[in-house]
Amino acid sequence: MVLQPSERHYGDWNHRRLGPWCSPTGSPAPLSCETGCGEGSWILVCRLLVPTQVSLLSMEEDIDTRKINNSFLRDHSYATEADIISTVEFNHTGELLATGDKGGRVVIFQREQESKNQVHRRGEYNVYSTFQSHEPEFDYLKSLEIEEKINKIRWLPQQNAAYFLLSTNDKTVKLWKVSERDKRPEGYNLKDEEGRLRDPATITTLRVPVLRPMDLMVEATPRRVFANAHTYHINSISVNSDYETYMSADDLRINLWNFEITNQSFNIVDIKPANMEELTEVITAAEFHPHHCNTFVYSSSKGTIRLCDMRASALCDRHTKFFEEPEDPSNRSFFSEIISSISDVKFSHSGRYIMTRDYLTVKVWDLNMENRPIETYQVHDYLRSKLCSLYENDCIFDKFECVWNGSDSVIMTGSYNNFFRMFDRNTKRDVTLEASRENSKPRAILKPRKVCVGGKRRKDEISVDSLDFSKKILHTAWHPSENIIAVAATNNLYIFQDKVN
Amino acid sequence: MMLSKGLKRKQEEEEEGKEALAVDTWWLGPGHPAVAHAPPAVASRSLFDLSVLKLHHSLQQSEPDLQHLVLVVNTLRRIQACMAPTAALPPMPSLPTAPGIADNLLASSDASLSASMASLLEDLSHIEGLSQAPQPLVDEGPPGHPTGGAPPSLGALDLLGPATGCLLVDGLEGLFEDTDTSMYDSELWAPASEGHKSSPEDGPGKEEAPELDEAELDYLMDVLVGTQALERPPGPGC
């Protein structure tokens, strides 16, 4: 299959190199307490909800959703299952934060502008745009419902005034354009002010329509729909550093798309066996290298990571590198494979490392060393003795994500009981924090949490048996250059900021 | 959901000297005979039953999560590899639906079932002492569909619903089919095999069929006749 040249360039891509993320001072954004993610350094900036009613309101009446934010989002809790957040992603500047939910909606928040009068409000995010990205569909051939849940959102780098993002459900990827309109034309000759056609016979003079200011309106329009290319459920999308292509990965295949072409894609990975009886492994996540447009990685349910080079062959079934850690015999159990299944894989911003999340750990791998990770962090090792129960209630299949901070010095991932964990790679210190309404007051410093494994439980510790496994932090995001994090807990979005900032 | 207090994990070497797979048994409850001092085979068996249940439940979804399915099947294979080739185990209380599900799996397998799954099921029938009692054949659907080698008991086909029934008729291969275009006619009122546990996802009528008595049948007939009378176009003079 030959890729046809684009008929038109997708804008003038600004091929500016995404260099190392730095604070304005030029050094990597430090965390407070000089030791990194030390205790008592994170504060809650705001907690955001997107109730169903607010979304419907903004879509039907086409009003400025920014006005809704303050009055609705903070206090109302009439949430439905459709409101459960299923993905969170900052854009490349951190100015925008997008969430997708089970109801197929995308909500974009924008950072409050810096204001001399309200300095304390800097860092807060308000609703910028809300739109229905995907609707439930029905596959008539298989008699199957296709969920509208948004599995992933990925931003494209900004190249003009508009913002572009990719959103995907199980089967279809869409490219959305989000743009602002603050002017409207007035003074048409053939239409009156309400838009009704005028009788040409009544027109005696001509005028030139002029643009007049109007209330800011943010509109989202679907620009491309990439459909019918995935038999299995899409779990990942990743924008290539060439800004012309992206890939979408499902359980057994990975496809490469050009943004301009929606009716065809390249299949670059296919692990479907000729005989489906031999199926023992599926693809769980995939991502392009941040700088090398020919390189990508994908992870599997057997705890392996394959790095592929698209220059080697059209079909990247043969990996260039294969990352796998040998199984620890002392920890072997019936559940070894399940807990080794990788739920997320992320390149570091530098492109030198990859981070993987399996059920109990986060691992950092050096691309130059395949036989074992260079760092392993225990997220919640106290669950190792509970695997049977977690298997019974299916929690063992939960897919946690992991994220790097802007300088690749700290990694973060979620856990149960609305806990999330940060690991400082330099100091080897770690902290457990909680995203919950009860424990978070705006601007109050988050208190580190501790899980008591056995023996005496201290006053502020929580025992393993008291953990709430229905409250899980699966989706988190870290601002690309500042110490601002977004944590999704069911239908709540928490924005935390490092105090020093 | 809260986890109850855990018991100490038990790890024992297997008879053949294979590396033992640790199985924590605390979740069975302190009063359960399989706990603490029970041999790991018992815990393995409980885990096996649970995994079979999970597989069954997964297959009942309209579109099973492939990753979940593959992981459960692989876990089943691991457990089965540990359990076989042991001698016949002492009868242990297992989840009531497990034998029924085993029947279903046996019933719906055909010649294309993978070797590993086939040996798994053979061991299962050996272990459980199940016999493949002949049951009335259910119409499998379009002629020409490969059914050679299928065991006689196919009454379980309808129990799993049209979608999952299709998957299981092809054995494990059918689990992962790209496109399932074969819709099997299933007799809604065919008798179910014993021990089947109905679930909310079951289609109408499957779980009801074996338990209808004459009075209920009469009532249903009345309702149907009454409905038809309502739908009958009004005749002259009405």
TrEMBL record, chain A:
SMART domains, per database record: WD40
SUPFAM superfamilies, per database record: WD40 repeat-like
GO CC annotation, single: protein phosphatase type 2A complex
Keywords annotated in UniProt: Repeat, WD repeat
InterPro entries: PP2A_PR55, PP2A_PR55_CS, WD40/YVTN_repeat-like_dom_sf, WD40_repeat_dom_sf, WD40_rpt
Coiled coil residues, start to end: none
An annotated Gene Ontology molecular function: protein phosphatase regulator activity
Family statement drawn from the similarity comment of this UniProt entry: Belongs to the phosphatase 2A regulatory subunit B family.
Name of the molecule in the record: Serine/threonine-protein phosphatase 2A 55 kDa regulatory subunit B
Organism per entry: Delphinapterus leucas
Gene (name only): PPP2R2B
